[in-house]
Amino acid sequence: MVSSSLRILDKRLDCNQQWTFSLDGVVVEPDHIYRVSVFNLPEPDIGDYKINKTITIPGSLWDPDVTTAVSLDKELGKFSIVVSFKTAQYSERYRVSIQSSGFRCSKDVSKIQPFFVRCKNDCGRPEKIIDVCQDPVNTSSAAAKQQPEGFKVQDRKRVLIIYSLDHPLYKSIVLSLCAFLASKCGTEVVLDLLDSRRLGLLGSIQWLDWHREQIESSSDKILILCSRGVKAKWRAMCGDERVILREDACSPAGDMLSPALSLMVPHFVRSASFEKYIVAYFDNVCCEEDVPSPFLITVRYKLMKQFEELFFRILDTERHEPGRVNHIEGLSEDEYHRCPSGRALRDAIEAFHAYQLERPQWFENELLRSSETSVEIHDDVKTTKNLSTHSVPDWSHVSSHVETRDVDFTGDGTGLNVA
């Protein structure tokens, strides 16, 4: 706020002309709105004593006229993005940023930051949306091959994963599946292990119910991964002996599956269709007997044998259409492990499968008696640390979906040069 006073004595303008005032030295910001008020003190007997006027300061006069071009090198399997723009008269340095979600089909954002003398690092940054889409779908029938344009995955889907912490090796499988869904399939994954801050603020029931409501009001899905622990905890909810797993006792959030089943099973059985819920299990380390009875009325998918069918459910797309069968490259049982995240998932499944073969009573060994629970939580800090540091190769794809790369440029009369 800037204020100034002016005292006028015995000065009158002829013919009732208005006074003219000016104020110099006030620094204003582009794209801001200012209000100028003029007061007459003391208040006159007739007329207004205050005049208000709103002034809008225009933004930068620089029009970068940003254009983008996207090309694909099919041999190398890489995209190239070229960003072109006009330089400004009073800026010799620029920073170009391309923010990418890193998936096959994405809306990338290009930002150009000039460095003018007055605003320096706070100058306005024009943005340009870059539509980068690569169609990963081909078809298996001759009729479909005559149609070069298969369906494109336009919308990024979200999946809430419900599971049981049966064992550290099974937790590694769940995390690896999340990495594969995010990096290979472009799916947003909601998992308690990846949202510990919000989970700690809301609590398990509120966290689960909030995500359930979000998914119920959208086209997103809830994926229920069935296992020995899921079946045992469901039986405990139906009156059997209480089940406490070693991993639940070591987890800060505790048992997340039991409250999830309490919230979601009533909605599941009352729903007109089961399109929101997807039931699956890992065939090599689990079996169909691990599926709780309420979920036996819907399709159960074997992973990774039927992962492609499951992903079509996530996309709300029919795999089988008249005259053709849709196929997404890299998601079948024989192909999914050819990418880094898929390879990590296969290795995690094989490691747990080998562990089960060596220790047939592994699940019974993971069960805790009530007297052992407090000891397990407080007694062995080293064990807790070891259980929480199971790393997943290629996990950066899940911890951060957005990658930004900044490049500095200098502008001259001939064009742009990399600084």
TrEMBL record:
UniProtKB keywords: Cell membrane, Glycoprotein, Membrane, Receptor, Signal, Transmembrane, Transmembrane helix
Topology in membrane: Single-pass type I membrane protein
Ranges of residues in domain SEFIR: 156-312
UniProt key word Transferase: no
Domain of life (superkingdom): Eukaryota
Gene Ontology cellular-component annotations: plasma membrane
Alphabetical list of InterPro entries matching this protein: IL-17_rcpt-like, IL17R_A/B_N, IL17RA/B_FnIII-like_1_sf, SEFIR_dom
PROSITE patterns: SEFIR (PS51534)
UniProt-recorded Gene Ontology molecular function terms: interleukin-17 receptor activity
Short name of any one Pfam family annotated for the protein: IL17R_fnIII_D1
Compartments it resides in: Cell membrane
Protein name per its UniProtKB record: Interleukin-17 receptor A
Species of the source: Liparis tanakae
Gene that produces this protein: IL17RA_1
